[in-house]
Design goal:
alpha/beta; five-stranded mixed sheet; 2 domains; Nucleotidyltransferase, domain 5
């Protein structure tokens, strides 16, 4: 099989703390098949990924199935992309677990691992809202919060490879306990999961996610208060990042960013309220939405397999 052919496709997985998004993507990065599944605990992850891969491939016609040339996998936490190992992912109960080699053996395809936020940001830079922008900051807000910054088109990784842990910048020193052990981290106050927890704590009424809180804005004082606290905290965190990095634009992605103006407008207002010497950059919603991670995983699989060509922003 000629891996340089534009006719080849890839399997891609975006592993989140609660849900895994899985797709087979064609050469234009549009999905040929897709499914979601609950994220399993610990070492059973490889089994779940392999079973899902086989099910997706089995649903394709033989010609499309034979075109799938590689598998890309976006993982949270600390990822050793060279060895294909999940070094540490607290939400997945993984520590020093080999992923790429056993998954490749089960599926029969080369496997490439990447950090979930980094690959999602790269998808937005290549094919999304950050395409063509100078030095964007891409912030992914879901179960947690993390960011990727660019300088002259290159990702800033830092000496440890962990640059961009915006979610663990303390914005409310007396705030709720974060999973990392500190108090008042940005993701403990302003992530999608934090919004849902805060609403439940305030009302005693469980909600499935932040979207349900947003749907109650203007009609529920508790929802208004929780959302105001979260967006003010997010504005403070983004203003700190702006002071340090002076990005050309901030692109907000992840599940919470799908709230659109309900998120962007109060966050930008908070940043402008507090900005003094810092110029507030444009705030944009990620174009790829919740698919950014899976598209990014597809891109690293394509790159690793040597597949030629890149999609235009319209194709993805």
């Amino acid at each position: 099989m000629d891996v340089r052919s534009r006719d080849l496709a890839v399997l891609a997985f975006d592993v989140g703390g609660t849900t895994i998004k899985a797709e087979v993507l064609g050469p234009d990065l549009r999905p040929w098949a897709r499914t979601d599944l609950r994220t399993p605990p610990g070492a059973t992850l490889v089994d779940a990924l392999a079973d899902t891969a086989h099910a997706l491939l089995a649903g394709l016609d033989p010609r499309d199935r034979s075109a799938v040339a590689a598998l890309g996998l976006a993982l949270p936490g600390i990822v050793d992309t060279v060895r294909g190992v999940s070094v540490y992912a607290a939400n997945l109960d993984l520590r020093d677990v080999a992923i790429a080699e056993p998954l490749a053996a089960r599926v029969g395809l080369p496997v490439r691992l990447g950090h979930d936020v980094t690959v999602a940001a790269e998808a937005e830079r290549r094919s999304g809202a950050a395409s063509g922008m100078a030095d964007p900051l891409v912030v992914i807000i879901g179960t947690g919060i993390a960011a990727v910054s660019y300088v002259r088109g290159e990702v800033v990784r830092g000496t440890s490879g962990q640059a961009g842990e915006l979610g663990h910048v303390v914005v409310r020193p007396d705030g709720p306990l974060c999973g990392c052990g500190a108090r008042g981290c940005l993701e403990a106050v302003a992530s999608a999961s934090a919004v849902a927890r805060a609403y439940t704590a305030a009302t005693g009424e469980p909600v499935l996610g932040a979207q349900q809180v947003v749907e109650r804005l203007g009609a529920d004082p508790a929802a208004d208060a929780v959302w105001s606290a979260a967006t003010r905290a997010l504005g403070d965190g983004l203003l700190t990042a702006t002071a340090l990095l002076a990005p050309g634009a901030i692109v907000l992605g992840g599940g919470l960013a799908e709230c659109g103006p309900a998120l962007l407008e109060p966050v930008e207002a908070r940043m402008r309220e507090r900005a003094t010497v810092v110029t507030v950059p444009p705030l944009l919603t990620a174009r790829l939405g919740s698919r950014a991670g899976v598209v990014g995983a597809a891109l690293i699989a394509r790159d690793a397999a040597g597949l030629s060509g890149r999609p235009s922003p319209q194709e993805a």
